[in-house]
Specification:
about 140 residues; rod-shaped; 5-stranded antiparallel beta sheet
Length: about 140
């Protein structure tokens, strides 16, 4: 079993991002190691990811720039004036963020027939254990 964790990007006041953007918060893995003494042995490994990502560090800026150009003069003795407006945009990429991962020491879990354990809101239930295999269900 592999569970990916996400957390909301915090906005300027520390609340969840209005658009629902998230960042990696780590993962939990449970894997079957084998049997020992009539029990199925599993190993749970947790990795936590810490990040300084916020909505401000992950959002680009688009700055509009408007320029007005005026021309005045004469053509054949007739006064002429004109104005032209042009608009452009400057794109400033997001600043970005940094993150680091830490792994907790793996935990071994031994379960016999009919026993279960809850991991990240899901239940791993052992149905049958034999010396060479295990039948289990994830609920």
């Amino acid at each position: 079993m592999n569970f990916q964790s996400r957390r909301s990007l915090p906005n300027i006041v520390g609340k969840a991002d209005l658009f629902g953007r998230t960042t990696d918060a780590g993962h939990t893995t449970v894997r079957y190691l084998g049997t020992h003494g009539g029990q199925a042995v599993f190993e749970r490994s947790d990795v936590t990811v810490e990040s300084n990502a916020t909505t401000m560090s992950e959002t680009p800026l688009i700055l509009p720039n408007t320029t007005n150009t005026s021309v005045n003069g004469t053509i054949g003795g007739t006064p002429v004036s004109a104005t032209a407006t042009s608009t452009s945009f400057q794109y400033i990429p997001p600043r970005g963020s940094s993150q680091y991962a830490t792994a907790a020491r793996p935990i071994q879990i031994a379960l016999g027939k009919g026993q279960s354990v809850t991991v990240e809101g899901r239940t791993l239930r052992v149905i049958h254990v034999s010396p060479t295999s295990v039948d289990y269900r994830i609920e």
